[in-house]
Amino acid sequence: MSSIMDSIFELVGYNRSTPGASMDNQQSFLLNGSSVNIVSRCQTELCEIIRHKFQCEATFEGVDFQGDSNVFKKKKAPDTPGKRFEVTLPSGTRVSVWKGDLTESKVDAIVNAANSKLQHGGGLAAAISKVGGSKIKNDSEAYIRTRGSLPTGKAILCNAGNLPCKKLIHAVGPHMPYKPNATEVSQARRQLEETIRGILDIVVEHQLTSVAMPAISSGLFNYPLADCAETIVNTVKLYFQSSPRNSVEVLLMNNDEPTVAAITRACHQIMGSQSSASYNQAAFSNTRGAANISPDIVQMGNVLVTLKRDKIEEQQTDVIVNTVGQTRHLSNALESNVDSPRKKAGPPHISLMGSTVESINEARRWLTGLLLKSSDEISIQNNFIQHLSDRQYQQLTRLTGDGVSVEEFLSKGHACINVSSHSREDGVLAALQVETMLREVQEAFVRGEEAEMKLITGSDASFERKIVDPSSQEFMSAVRPFRQVPLSPIKVERVENAALKMLFDFKKQQLKCASSRPMYQCIPAQFCDLVGRVGFHAEVAPPEAPNFGEGIYFTATVEKAREVWRANQEEHLYFVEAEVLEGHSTRGKPGLILPPVMENDPGVFNSVHGGPEVSVIFSGYQALPRYIITCGK
């Protein structure tokens, strides 16, 4: 217990970290009372919401997961698990791509995407540690005590504990900043190649016949997925082509569809398409006959692999594991026949891991307000509420009842949903369902905007948020306007988005604007990435009082921005500095959804204003985000 608490207190000391683009920033806080029950019922959705809103990963300890609550039962059908690709290399080595749970793989060895401290606190590492039991943690701590940190690019062989595989390989891939640039990716590629070769060296040296590995470094470690997939596949191919080796089966296995698709695509490009027709029929056919194959059997040389859907607790196997790798009770029950099956890993708590200290601060603030405060009413303010579909509104209607009330309203241009309940637990679960809907709506909105940008520009939308050196002249120029108000700039990020720049230039020519004007907008933390990806939209930062129209507001000064966007409950303030094309402008008024027509001209105004310090545009392409400035209050 004391070692667990020591770890928690160490995590709380995250403020000692320099704010940067690494997932090393961590913080934990304890759960109590109804918050434990809430987390136990909806941990999957909660993780997705936190990842979407704050770019943070959340893990839960000391909680017996009960499965998802009824309010979350309507989900998109999962993609079919199983094998997606298989090829036999000239050396006899078979390489295959699988969608599945690595912790269930009955191979000679599975690979854990570990960090240098072998602290398995998030993502796949946490799932492996939970299913494998205390042996995984004990062996890892023993290694660190005797040999120190495991360097990037290295791998070690350990016992597998309660996992169904025979051995466990801990491998440390490159840990990259959030949104790495081309130079950083190039440097990390060599480290990832070294990591994969180290894994395969262990497999060959210990005469293991099969190994299952994930897309190392692509998740929490921020390695771009497409490049990660190509690097792993190419390294495996070159390794077994370079010299004669024993025949080995390499399974590239992941549990999320985007990663599986990326690995499959890389295999087709690098190794060629040689997957069996029998598998393609079973995995990709959507005919009724294919759906009735049970169990699915895949021939892999002399080995038959059975893919079976059934009740896991009824299987007559040496070991059973939880299909999602998260159920604490099942994991503890497997650890030892002596241990109590109700034992938990210390007091219930949430651990947050994020790319920046600020993102963790925001996630902690939001979670604390949601889970630990005693108010009977939860208010969600987000103008993407207006994008909810009829189906989603029907879902909102179904949430009402059994003591839960869901009220939607529009006040001064702000869309809000209030959730109230006699039971705090039921109210929070209903609010999380609303947040899940908003996440889906925003993701669909961004996909649509990116598709439109690609259609216009002919290029894929991509962007980077690059931290500006605090000692540089660029940083000094960006924060100079903030010195006139009682704000402390913490960080400046330069936004680079070639597609948005192209669209901005198109708009500049169309409006025949000779120049643009640097202006500001204050936005919620959860929309910083959205603005960088698809630019400005009215839903992102509605003003406190939309007195000059329903468009996109900007201010000439930071001080005015604080006045226009007063209602901010977040830990920090997030300002976007943008170049704005005002063109021909006139005085705005409430209710305008487009600029008014010019009196003595067949055209329309390009924008409206509320005096010299407020400008309102009605096309997001009239503004180009340049910097995101994070300030302490």
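Second entry:
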Amino acid sequence: MPDFRRMSRAVSPCSDRPRGFSISDAISMAGEASNRRLSVPFKYLVPPLPEALSDEEFGKIEKDTIRSTMRIAAVLTALFLTLFIAALNTVSISTAIPSICAELKSASGYAWIGAAHLLADAAAAPIWAKLSDIWGRKLILLTAISLYFGASTVCATAKTMRILIVGRSLQGAAAGGLIQIVHIVISDLFDLRRRALYVGLLEIMWAIAGAIGPVLGGAFSELLSWRFLFWLNLPMCSLAFGLLFLCLDIHNPKTPFLEGMKAVDWAGIATLLGCVIMILLGLNFGGETYAWDSPQVLALIVAGFTLLVLFVISEAKLAKHPLIPLHIFENKSNVATLFVMFTLHFAYFSTEYYLPLYFQSVRNASPMASGTLLLPTTIVSAVFGFASGISIYAWACYRELIWAGLTCLTLGSGLYIKLNATASLGQIIGYQIVTGIGAGLLFPAPTIALQTQVSAAETATAIGALGFARSLATSFAAVIGGTVIANSMVVQSAKLSSIGLPIEYLQKVAGPHAVSNVHVIEEIKDPVLRLAVRQAFAWSLRNLWILCVCITGTGLCYSTFIKKGDLDRKHVETKTGLDKREI
């Protein structure tokens, strides 16, 4: 008598398809059984498992082979759209900021519109990953989308700079969740080889957002209103929410609310948030709002590093479910990979965020034109990002891609140093192509490199750590980049004063708020003085590119410590909840 219970387990939605035994085999054998008119209920008309398989192998099924093609396509569409939403407002705002500051009458808002979003993103990224481990990916992802929807509404209706910055902070916190959980869900659905391919596609979403975002920001600012940048999020959030609610069918631990709240690493969250915010605030205020040796700046930086020490102690000694388990850092390959991730996004975001400033201040480009001029970076990085994912999928060559990518990224950042007020369009495009190649080659590789060194159960934590490195890099790029440029323009004030620049212009273009006053340059009637101001902006941006070269060069050196791991085609899906195990 056949073991029908064992047979039904073979095609149960909660079980795995054994190696060498395909869905088509199941259908064929079921048809043969039907033809023999077995006198058993229909639900038992399933193929018996090969005798060589043990019970342990039942737990090693790729659930994506059970899911229908239409369901997977719907889920991937929603995931790509979710990442696109998060990426779009990160980059589109750069070309709209001057218009926003002018309408809301706040010059100081130039730095904070971007920094508020990035600070919240950096602080929240590992928190979302851990929450998804406790309550499951689907619930937390839908929560993040809902928060992003609400925050976008706040930004779109803001009447003052203070309300806009609050909305941008909430939006940044939600974006941290969107980006992290999307990558985690991809890792839950696919094996490491195919994961590289889909991560490459995710990076194309980043690149598309980077390509159309600045253009969109400039177009809305000039032709309609910058508020449409935020209104645009609402239908996209609604569509992504609906698709994921209906189609995403990954494990739901159904963790009780109170039990989950007790498991949250509250001490880690508090110390991490305080550490990130205070250090970045101190760096942002230094030399701009307050002097570097002022009590305000020193207190913020010292307090930030003190909280960093407390965070490490909390994670090592107190937390039952730590946000970032410290044993990940015991592997030097993991540390090198995280630093490469930081390097990539510091350099790439500096390009996306501050190259439009070069176009507007030095090249006299409009917001829309500055977004268009940024297209070489985004298009090339998209193409090479996808090609990188295919290469990892086909040949498992992620270390070589990291080395080649960092070499190109360092070279491209170094070429930006040559950009001045007389640089040709060919130079601008050519330098961006080199940078885009480097960034594209790097996009999927660090994610795969780190995941080869951790277990499937730690995938979410590893992605959270990578997300924290990425968010920290973009935050540092925005905050430190703004500080470098503002302080450099202050240094240039003496030179501009000596050649006769009127005091009313000098205070605006050579002060701490120079980046929000680029429109003033065109008001200068004397062409010699106008050219001198443009050269001052180019020199200030040059200092930022030098910093990028130093960071990417250091990343290239550290990348030699990254180990080669096995890109197994076997997939083990992770069970979330407080009693996690692989299923």
